[in-house]
Design brief:
- It is a single chain.
- The strands form twelve sheets. The protein has a seven-stranded antiparallel β-sheet with strand order 25-24-23-22-28-27-26. It has a seven-stranded antiparallel β-sheet with strand order 41-40-39-38-44-43-42.
- It is elongated.
- The protein has 65 helices and 44 strands.
């Protein structure tokens, strides 16, 4: 029983304190006057009576009532019911009203009528109680007021005395009994009666309607916000203008939090004087009157709920974690079903009449039911995570938070984590953790109803039903008696408070009240105590979480197969089947990502420990450790899945013997995990173990007693610790005192022994193996603890753990302090915490503190020995480093660093789209040699472990090197790595092994950088080869290599003297101002301008001063240069010894530049027009950039048109000629004279052309007149319009449709013959399809029509850069014409190439590789640049072919100019398409004419900043595109182009070093080949090397080479016709790039040798060929190479004299030709090479690349053979020998082609005889015939099944005359008779026999 009210207080206004503004209240009277012993009187009641301050009011207000809540120091809540009414303030002079003690109304003294006063003061009647019965208080105080105000004849003292002595039961039983009735019904002795509804179960909060009201005021979402804020410990402030509402709202919020109890500041009504409480740092729930709203504005971290306005304001800095989904959504839905039942049916057509919300009181309970369900779902299974660590004398219980979150799968959930860490939950565990106590609704719900809630999820009706059931129970609990009708309480008369002459509230007689109280107390003491026995029982645990969560499917994701793999792997390890284990190992490591697999691992290992198999050998130990580490690396510091917990006993079990007496345990190898440093983990583990031991303690004692009984029954399920505890707690009161003491003693020592055990365990896992190092638990340093584990680390090591200790040690930093001390402090802190919590005695605790340093010290000593021994162990798992093969002269600069080669974005090697085991990542080493960076190693995947992976590239091709950090497979730590990208389209992404110190990685980078960018070109590999790498590493600035001294040195010296300027002094050289203005010099070009200044006085360059005897020799050398040979071949002039000129030649070879004085970057000998003297040339050269004046580089042998090249023009120069000619000039200035000379020069070029002989001196090329239009004999007719359209495309104009051109307003159409028009059409359509101008050129107002489609054709076209030729007007008097085009500059090429590299060799995998590849390829714009170059080249080819000369004058004349000029020659002249010619072309146009290889390839330190520009590569790509389209026109193969692409940047050869012939002479490179070669091996020139290889093997040769005379190639250049070169995408991991021939040669033999040895066993000839691993052309050579190889081998065996493959090949072709001639008479139609079919030579189909596709090809590939078997394209009319077609798809010829040959066949009725090619096919049982042997389409089929007979025939009309008539035979089928004729009788007989045999077979 409890008192209903503790104190009754009368509080009034204190007139004494009036002066200070706000008034104050004072306690007038309180009863009882002495404090109760069990409940002292609360302080500060007067503040709470008038929360907004004591003030006087001008009129009377109606009485008010509210309940304030005070919390005392013991956190007991006191409910203060305040009833306030107003009284008139007495006049200033004090008047006392003496009262008699009885206080009877009747005896009141008569007094004069009181004057109505001006002011009214509040007075409060206050009841203080610990029970919250607001309604009873309201009624009771109301009654007292009524008695006073209405003057009832009842003694106030009696009523108050009765009120204070009234006692009621705290909790009710199920049904009130009759005698209980009196206790529940109270009467205060004024004829009143009230029933007090005491709740049945005290633990459930009472809310009446407050919760429903709160939802009405704020709405669902807002209340949920407040609910979550309260649970996650935020500050919450309610505002309202009603005090009662504030109290209700606060009460409602608390009721919603049930079963958690709010344990922070809780003040439903805060008085004005205490407002500063709001700035407290702790969480709170406070209510404040809304008049103080302004004061709450500056609170930054408080969630403010305005009850009157219905808003909740969450400040920006506050983040409220909401409920986890799907609970949030489900709660919202349930609440809206309760609060707004109409919502469900709002859309129905026929609204049901019944639906309406429940009454407010019921709604209140329904809402609480929703939240009760919510908590049951949130906390389901919580009892399975309770650890009971002491049972006696008091149960001590801890909650394993991490395990709970982990099992629920909610580790990442913010809300639940915060709730579990909160105070409310800690209280929940203390209160509800106890295993033996009374239980309530929540306990039942969470134990029994969880399954039901699971099942009902999503079924609204069932959910609603459940909610209503729960609500019913809650309502019943709050209102156990329906007897509310029995209330009877008097109320005052209406408006009584307004009475004017109301007397003040009387003073009460203390004595009377006190007497009543004393009486009642005495009575209570004599009465027997009404002890209500609490019904205690064991708290049910409910289903374990695992059972609940099955639905989540986390467990299902780990298929049984994976677990099977884990089990097998472990059993292999323990059975010592290491190879098997190794194969499964990667799969196991991958499976470890899943939780089930990790659990499985711990269970399996545990089984092996139990079987005493814990001592392992080294390899087993290593496997187990790696599995454990992998298992732990995904664990967070919390270890929510208990993996680390399961491994903890295992790491102290598994061990290996290092040497006698020294054992290494597993824990020394698994310390690198953050979980071991998390103190919460250790606590949870400790408690778990203590619980097990305590359980065992009680189980043992009980088992002894019950052993006999249990053997009878089936063994029961093992009891959980909580069940045992509950049993013990039930028995506790019945035990004797000694027994109790004994149990306490036992438990305490159990805990103590565990503490010692854990001190040991912790020292094992915290002390590093090498304790000498002051590393703090972590070799990776403290910095990356965060990066170690994948989720956040709660206690970083350097963080909280260390800090908390270092508070004592002042500034000493944890890292610098000794490891041992650190560990000791860590363990001490742990021990302190757990021992105090679990009640270990103080003596024991002191003992532990003494013990711990000794434990640590001992452990350190054992570890020292282990560490010493373990260092002696050979590391086992690391594979041996494989040494790479090196070239002759290539030396290692750095020995191999152990690395792991990681996969990059190319997926083949990593086993991507193709499948197959991943070759990467691979373990091996990275080597740095003077020439290459090489990785060599083996894949980590054991299925391909025996393969060797090599990736390498020349150092010179390195374009980017960046540091990266890589997460390797089995290793949890990030390793430092490098990503090296090379412009040979290779990427090395390597992670350094931990054994590689970071400084060696740095040294590696430094060496790499030095080798990549030597000071001078002399430092490159091509020069240093063969020297020792030491001096190669630090090249001296002026080091002269004596071997390089040749006569050419003199030449250079002289040139330097003459020019008077040193080569090296770049600083002083300032380009002339006009050069900057006229030509667009990019800064990158200026910065390394090495050319000597050209503005010198040229007068010093007269031959007399410069010629020296040595120079004459040089001239002799110059004559031998490649270009000179070529000029002689083209008939462009000769150079006799006396340097005399033959005058009749239009051109001469000029030696004006032999000293490289006019133009540094030109060759010494140049072709210029005969009529131009040398000194003019000197002057002209100034007009051009870099002095590169126009020179002839090729002449068309047919049209005699010439191709010239030059640099772009400076501002003055030819452009001047085109600007208005008749502008008045101020006399003949110097510029004019140069312009004139320039004009003369161009005119001389035009004059050289033979058809320039028009009378008027103008060549009108009148082919465009309409007369000629129609004439059929105009030879160039078909090409004219195309040129117009081509030009326009190149310039960016639009053609008016295919094959038409505009002419003076009329339309003329030309039907272009053959492929020309289709070409034009294609380009046009292509550019339209692309939707944009592919060249990106704008119209720029260039008058395209008028300029280019004039009535005449110019004799010379100058192709120049649009930007230079702005403002050029066409001048009809000139014979030349300018074609302005837009080209891309070098910067664009660089940018494009970077993107191309990233597209072809991406650095990291993308989600959708195919799409990403195509997209990035398009973005790189590489193909559009190729397209542009090809387009310009084709235009120039057309112009030259039609007889106009062309001068290509773009940029500085050494990049795009070179590309275009070389391509034009390649397309126009078949000589350049041979091996010899291509070499000559490159030497002439690229090397002699000064393409800046060193600068563009950034070969030295100077070029580092400008970067790599692949101009030459772009040219080779264009050649590759042409080669694809014309496979029969090139003598060299695609491999040859790739070879050049690789080696022009590899710096292995000197050929492509330096920027011009001048520089090569200066270094003495140009002529050193003569007899100066010391070592035969080291090839200084790439050409010699190619010749040498070509002699040995046909790798550079194209078997399909069958050129046609005079064929000009016109390739398609649309982007749709271009292919990405496979050079960019392919790689060969088995041997590295195949372009260093010596390195890759010896290998295939090794592969085959083992096969040959054991031929006895049947061997499969098959082997897998990986596209990225094997070199396909070598593993599976094409047919011809194979046959040549076999022939070679046979001759070797027979001992014949070896002939070279070329001779064999030529012999075969020759014999083929003769055969063809003999057969030619018979099958004339099969000559594929007749010129009419030339367009079939363009092949887009399958053909023989170096990788070889066809399997059996005839070796007859010459132009006049009868059976050329090029599998050419499948375009209509593309002929292909039927035999080839067949052999490509079938297994062997003999089966399918039983017999074939040519027969004459008589056509059907009235048709002549025709020769046909017949094929007899046994397999298909048919006779097919074709037009010719080359034909692929079958003309007819005779089914042999239908043949009836075959008989000799007779010649009929039109039969071939010369044939013997016995050669005729007839074939009779069911449909008709076929007449055939063979060439002679034998053949006929053979045919008849063959067909007969076929018939008989069938």
């Amino acid at each position: 029983m409890a008192r209903l009210a503790d104190y009754f207080v009368l509080v009034g206004y204190d007139p004494g304190k009036r002066g200070s503004g706000d008034g104050q209240g004072q306690i007038l009277q309180r009863f009882p006057e002495k404090d109760w012993e069990d409940n002292p009187f609360p302080q500060g009641i007067e503040l709470f009576c008038q929360p907004s301050g004591w003030q006087l009011f001008p009129e009377r207000n109606p009485p008010t009532f509210f309940v304030a809540v005070l919390t005392d120091i013991n956190s007991e809540r006191h409910y203060c019911a305040c009833f306030t009414f107003w009284e008139a303030v007495e006049s200033p002079q004090p008047q006392s009203h003496p009262r008699n003690g009885e206080g009877e109304e009747g005896e009141e003294e008569p007094s004069s009528p009181v004057q109505p006063a001006q002011l009214f003061a509040p007075k409060s009647l206050v009841l203080v109680s610990r029970l919250d019965h607001a309604e009873v208080f309201r009624n009771s105080l109301g009654l007292i007021y009524t008695i006073y105000v209405d003057g009832l004849s009842v003694s106030l003292e009696n009523v108050i005395g009765n009120l204070l002595t009234c006692t009621i039961p705290i909790t009710g039983g199920a049904q009130p009994d009759a005698d209980d009735e009196a206790a529940r019904t109270i009467s205060l002795g004024a004829g009143d009666r009230q029933v007090i509804q005491t709740p049945i179960n005290d633990s459930l909060p009472v809310s009446s309607c407050s919760v429903a009201l709160l939802f009405r005021q704020l709405g669902i979402t807002n209340v949920l916000f407040l609910f979550c804020a309260a649970l996650t410990e935020h500050k919450i402030l309610f505002l309202s203008s009603s005090y009662q509402r504030l109290t209700d709202a606060c009460r409602a919020l608390l009721a919603l939090m049930f079963p958690l109890k709010y344990s922070f500041t809780y003040v439903p009504i805060l008085p004005a004087q205490l407002l500063e409480v709001l700035s407290t740092p702790t969480p709170f729930i406070i209510g404040v009157h809304s008049i103080f709203q302004s004061e709450t504005q500056e609170l930054l971290d408080v969630v403010i709920a305005d009850l009157d306005g219905g808003t909740v304001n969450v400040p920006e800095c506050v983040h409220i974690s909401l409920l986890p989904e799907p609970l949030l959504q489900q709660t919202r839905e349930a609440l809206s079903m309760v609060l707004d039942p109409e919502l469900e049916v709002a859309d129905l057509a026929f609204l049901p009449s019944t639906i309406s919300a429940s009454s407010l009181k019921m709604q209140d309970k329904e809402i609480r039911a929703v939240f009760l369900r919510l908590f049951a779902q949130l906390l389901q299974g919580y009892r399975w995570c309770l650890h009971i660590i002491r049972i006696h004398p008091e149960p001590v219980i801890r909650f394993h938070k991490a395990a709970f979150l982990g099992q629920r799968g909610l580790t990442e959930d913010d809300f639940l984590t915060k709730v579990l860490e909160g105070m409310a939950f800690a209280g929940f565990v203390t209160e509800r953790g106890a295993p033996y106590r009374p239980i309530d609704l929540f306990d039942e719900l969470v134990a029994y109803e969880v399954k039901r809630m699971r099942a009902e999820e999503g079924n609204k009706q069932k959910i609603l039903r459940h909610i209503k059931e729960l609500a019913e129970k809650l309502y019943k609990n709050e209102n156990p008696y329906p007897a509310v009708t029995m209330h009877k309480v008097q109320k005052p008369t209406e408006g009584c408070h307004l009475r004017l002459h109301q007397k003040p509230f009387p003073r009460l007689d203390e004595g009377t009240v006190q007497w009543i109280i004393d009486q009642a107390t005495a009575k209570l003491q004599t009465a027997p105590p009404a002890v209500k026995a609490e019904k205690k029982c064991m708290v049910p645990s409910g289903p374990p979480i695992a059972a609940i969560l099955e639905r989540n499917g986390n467990a299902l994701a780990n298929s049984a197969r994976r677990l099977e793999v884990v089990r097998n792997c472990i059993s292999y390890v323990f059975e010592n089947k290491m190879l098997e284990a190794k194969k499964l190992f990667p799969a196991v490591l991958r499976a470890m990502k899943g939780r089930a697999a990790r659990h499985c691992l711990t269970q399996e290992l545990n089984l092996h420990v139990q079987q005493n198999r814990a001592v392992l050998d080294h390899q087993q130990f290593d496997f187990v450790i790696r599995m454990m580490n992998c298992c732990l690396q995904d664990c967070t510091a919390m270890d929510e899945h208990g993996i680390a917990a399961a491994l903890l006993p295992l790491v102290t079990a598994f061990c290996r013997k290092l040497s006698p007496g020294i054992t290494q345990f597993a824990y020394s190898c698994v310390q690198e995990h953050v979980v071991w440093t998390n103190i919460q983990f250790w606590e949870a583990m400790f408690y778990c173990d203590v619980q097990n031991h305590i359980r065992a303690l009680y189980l043992d004692s009980s088992e002894e007693n019950h052993a006999e009984e249990e053997s009878m029954e089936e063994p029961q399920e093992a009891k959980s610790a909580l069940e045992i505890a509950s049993e013990q707690l039930r028995l506790w009161p019945t035990m004797s005192r000694e027994k109790q003491q004994e149990l306490i003693q036992k438990e305490e020592s159990t805990v103590f022994s565990q503490a010692i055990h854990y001190a040991n365990r912790m020292s094992y896992l915290l002390l590093p193996l090498d304790t000498s190092k002051n590393r703090l638990l972590r070799s990776s340093g403290l910095g990356d603890v965060e990066s170690v584990s994948n989720s956040f680390v709660t206690n970083s090591i350097a963080g909280s753990v260390a800090e908390s200790y270092d508070t004592e040690s002042g500034f000493e930093d944890a890292e610098s302090s000794d490891v041992a001390n650190y560990v000791v402090r860590f363990i001490n802190r742990f021990v302190d915490k757990v021992c105090t919590e679990s009640g270990v005695t103080n003596e024991h605790l002191k003992g532990l503190h003494v013990m711990i340093p000794d434990i640590v010290q001992m452990h350190i000593e054992t570890l020292d020995a282990v560490h010493r021994e373990s260092k002696r162990l050979p590391p086992i798992q690391k594979p041996k480093l494989l040494r790479p093969n090196l070239l002759v002269g290539e030396e290692c600069v750095m020995e191999g660093l152990r690395v792991c080669l990681m996969p990059d974005g190319r997926e083949e090697a990593a086993g991507g789209s193709i499948g197959g085991p991943p070759l990467l990542p691979a373990e091996g080493a990275i080597f740095l040699t003077t020439y290459r960076i090489i990785f060599k190693g083996t894949p980590t995947d054991p299925l391909v472990g025996e393969q060797v992976v090599i990736r390498s590239f020349p150092i010179a091709s390195l374009t980017k090197e960046k540091k990266i950090s890589i997460q390797a497979q089995a290793d949890p730590f990030l390793q430092e790595g490098l990503q090296l990208r090379s412009c040979t389209f290779q990427l090395l992404k390597i992670a350094f092994d931990e054994e590689v110190a970071s400084d060696s990685a740095e040294i590696f980078r430094k060496h790499l950088h030095k080798l990549r960018y030597p000071q001078h070109v002399r430092g490159t590999f091509a020069f240093t080869v063969g020297q020792s790498p030491k001096q190669a590493m630090q090249p001296k600035a002026k080091e002269k290599n004596p071997s390089l001294r040749t006569l050419s040195k003199n030449l250079v010296k002289n040139a330097k003297k003459t020019i008077g300027r040193q080569y090296v002094t770049r600083k002083k050289y300032t380009p002339p101002a006009w050069e900057q203005r006229g030509s667009q010099h990019f800064p990158e070009d200026n910065e390394d301008e090495i050319s000597v200044s050209e503005d010198m006085d040229r007068s010093t360059l007269t031959p007399s001063t410069t010629m020296r005897p040595s120079d004459k020799m040089t001239n002799a050398h110059v004559v031998e240069r490649a270009c000179c040979r070529d000029y002689q071949r083209l008939g462009l002039g000769t150079l006799s010894s006396s340097l005399t000129r033959s005058k009749n030649e239009p051109f001469r070879i000029s030696t004006v530049n032999r000293m490289y004085a006019i133009c540094r970057s030109y060759p010494g000998l140049l072709i210029v027009p005969q009529s131009i003297p040398d000194n003019t040339i000197q002057r002209i050269s100034r007009c051009y950039r870099q002095n590169r004046f126009p020179v002839v580089c090729w002449r068309n042998s047919r049209t005699k048109a010439v191709l010239l090249r030059s640099g772009g023009l400076h501002g003055k120069g030819v452009v001047g000629l085109f600007k208005s000619q008749n502008a008045p000039t101020a006399g003949p200035s110097q510029t004019d004279s140069t312009s004139l000379e320039q004009e003369k020069y161009l005119q001389a070029v035009i004059n050289s052309m033979p058809h320039y002989s028009d009378a008027s001196g103008r060549n009108t090329l009148s082919g465009f007149t309409s007369a000629h239009m129609s004439s059929a004999d105009f030879s160039d007719k078909r090409q004219q319009p195309k040129l117009g359209s081509l030009m326009k495309q190149v310039m960016g104009g639009k053609d008016e449709g295919p094959g038409t051109f505009s002419r003076g307003g009329k339309w003329g159409s030309i039907r272009a013959s053959g492929r020309m028009s289709s070409y034009a059409l294609n380009v046009e359509i292509g550019s339209r399809l692309a939707g944009k101008d592919l060249l990106g050129a704008q119209h720029n107002g260039t008058p395209a029509e008028t300029t280019f489609l004039r009535q005449h054709r110019a004799s010379l076209y100058i192709i120049g850069d649009k930007s230079q030729l702005k403002g050029v007007k066409p001048d009809p008097l000139q014979h030349w014409e300018v074609v302005p085009i837009e080209v891309f500059d070098v910067r664009q090429v660089k940018a494009s190439f970077k993107k191309l590299m990233k597209a072809c060799v991406p650095g990291c995998p993308s989600s959708d590789p195919s799409v990403a590849y195509l997209r990035s390829l398009e973005e790189s714009e590489w193909l559009s640049q190729i397209h542009k170059i090809l387009q310009i080249s084709v235009l120039v080819v057309e112009l030259l072919d039609t007889g106009s000369s062309v001068l290509v004058s773009l940029e500085d004349g050494w990049d795009i100019t070179t590309q275009v000029v070389s391509l034009v020659q390649l397309l126009s002249d078949r000589y350049y398409r041979t091996l010899e010619g291509f070499r000559l072309l490159v030497e002439k146009e690229w090397l002699s004419f000064g393409h800046r290889f060193s600068h563009r390839g950034a070969q030295t330190l100077a070029g580092q900043s400008s970067g790599f520009a692949p101009i030459f590569l772009q040219f080779l790509d264009c050649v590759h595109q042409i080669h694809l389209q014309f496979p029969m026109e090139f003598e060299f193969s695609q491999y040859y182009l790739k070879f050049l692409s690789y080696h022009y940047i590899s710096n292995r050869f000197r050929t492509f070093l330096l920027d011009s012939d001048y520089e090569r002479i200066e270094l003495g490179l140009l002529y050193e080949e003569k007899g100066e070669r010391k070592s035969q091996q080291v090839h200084k020139s790439i050409w010699d090397y190619i010749d040498r290889i070509n002699r040995k093997t046909p790798v550079f040769f194209n078997y399909m080479f069958a050129p046609e005379d005079g064929e000009v190639l016109r390739p398609y250049s649309n982007i749709s016709n271009l292919k990405v070169w496979d050079y960019y995408t392919e790689e060969t991991l088995s041997e590295g790039p195949s372009y260093d021939w010596e390195l890759t040669q010896g290998q295939p033999e090794h592969v085959e040798e083992p096969d040959r040895q054991d031929t006895g066993a049947p061997q499969s000839k098959r082997r897998i060929i990986w596209p990225c691993y094997d070199n396909r052309s070598r593993v599976e050579p094409d047919a011809i190479s194979r046959l040549l190889q076999e022939l070679h081998n046979l001759k070797m065996e027979l001992g014949h004299v070896q002939e070279r493959w070329k001779e064999t090949w030529d012999g075969v072709k020759a014999s083929q030709r003769t055969e063809a001639r003999q057969e030619g008479s018979r099958t004339p139609s099969s000559l594929l090479m007749s010129s009419g079919l030339s367009h079939h030579r363009r092949s887009l189909g399958v053909y023989l690349q170096e990788s070889g596709v066809g399997s059996t090809l005839n070796l007859s590939l010459d132009s006049d053979t009868s059976s050329t078997s090029t599998p050419s394209s499948g375009k209509p009319g593309g002929r292909r020998s039927t035999s080839t077609l067949y052999s490509q798809f079938q297994t062997s010829e003999s089966e399918n082609r039983s017999y074939e040959g040519s027969l004459y066949k008589k056509g059907a009725f009235m048709k002549p005889w025709k020769p046909r090619w017949f094929v007899l096919d046994k397999t298909k049982h048919q006779l097919r015939y074709y037009d010719s042997r080359m034909d692929t389409e079958c003309k007819g089929v005779i089914d042999l099944a239908e043949v009836e007979s075959i008989t000799p025939g007779t010649p009929t009309m039109g039969a071939p005359k010369t044939v013997d008539e016995k050669a005729f035979f007839d074939l009779k089928t069911t449909k008709r008779v076929y007449n055939f004729c063979a060439q002679d009788v034998q053949l006929a007989q053979q045919w008849i026999d063959r067909i007969q045999s076929c018939l008989s077979d069938a």
